[in-house]
Amino acid sequence: MTLVIGLTGGIASGKSTVANMLIEKGITVIDADIIAKQAVEKGMPAYRQIIDEFGEDILLPNGDIDRKKLGALVFTNEQKRLALNAIVHPAVRQEMLNRRDEAIANREAFVVLDIPLLFESKLESLVDKIIVVSVTKELQLERLMKRNQLTEEEAVSRIRAQMPLEEKTARADQVIDNSGTLAETKQQLDEIITSWAEYKNTVR
Q1: Which PANTHER family match (predicted)?
Q2: Which end of the chain, C or N, has fewer beta carbons within 10 A?
Q3: Which positions make up the binding site?
Q4: Domain spanning 1-27+109-203: which superfamily?
């Protein structure tokens, strides 16, 4: 039995750090963001749909989609954001399911779906267990400003665009507090994976 784990968190909470730790353990991690980028590349069905919806102004000189331009467009316009999601999300979901099912067919012990907006997109049914990576509000703001070179106002607005971290942690099966050292984060992850491996063995 393969245990399907959903990995999520808030923006700049350190979810990618935990994902990398899982990969180091040899666990398959299916990253929604990477699949979303691949889904809008030239030649993919979503690429043509996005141009039809948003026009050729969003293209770079080489024909690729200008992600920054498209991001700025949808970030300030709810209708355009929903239109983009309606194109990209089904394609991403299908590819994630294909890769998840492949891991299950290969009888892998665990497979992780790394989905930043797991709760917001109501994708809980795709997984058996959910890990939320959390940090303090102060640290989240500080890391986001530093990582993305944002003003405090810009960073706060991006954090507020997501479901509050407290709400995500309340809905998680396990929470990793990533406010401390990398070693502390890794120890928490190790304990979760060990306990779930034991759980899997008892319910076979």
Answers
A1: BIFUNCTIONAL COENZYME A SYNTHASE-RELATED (PTHR10695:SF46), DEPHOSPHO-COA KINASE-RELATED (PTHR10695)
A2: C
A3: 12-17
A4: P-loop containing nucleotide triphosphate hydrolases (3.40.50.300)
Q: Where are the domains positioned within the chain?
A: 1-27+109-203, 34-107
Q: How many CA atoms lie within 13 A of 9 on its CB side?
A: 25
Binding residues for ATP are: 12-17
pTM (two decimals): 0.86
Cβ 5 vs Cβ 127: under 8 Å = yes
Q: Which amino acid is it at 13?
A: S
- Long-range residue pairs from 137-146, CB within 8 A, at least 24 positions apart, any chain: 137/165, 139/179, 140/10, 140/11, 140/12, 140/13, 140/165, 143/12, 143/14, 144/11, 144/12
The CATH architecture one would assign to domain 34-107 is 3-Layer(aba) Sandwich (3.40)
Identity of residue 173: D
Fold equal for 1-27+109-203 and 34-107: yes
